[in-house]
Amino acid sequence: MTRTARKRSTRRYLGGRTSAFRAPQYYGMVTTGPDSEPGINGGLFQRGNDAETSVTMDVESIEDTMKKIEHEGGKVVQGKMPIPGMGWFATCKDTEGNTFGLFTNDPEAA
Of 3, 14, 22, 101, which has the fewest beta carbons less than 10 angstroms from its beta carbon? Predict the structure, then answer.
């Protein structure tokens, strides 16, 4: 599926708007409603060999959290990377092999 088609289907199925970010790989932020109302936003990644559903958690410090994960036997799959104008993101795996994301808000991230 092309990025344009992916954006159209996201709007059609989820009722949101998308914004693309050029990080090491494609990431499209999906906004499902106004910031003034409760809700949940999300994102679309470029599909790869490890395409799967994952959860991303907001943490106070990505660096400290990655250290804790490794100390407890988990792994850092992709280290800290910027999502320009939004914050920092990392991908990890727990001891059961589940992939999950970490996010720290930082509008100065570049």
Answer: 22
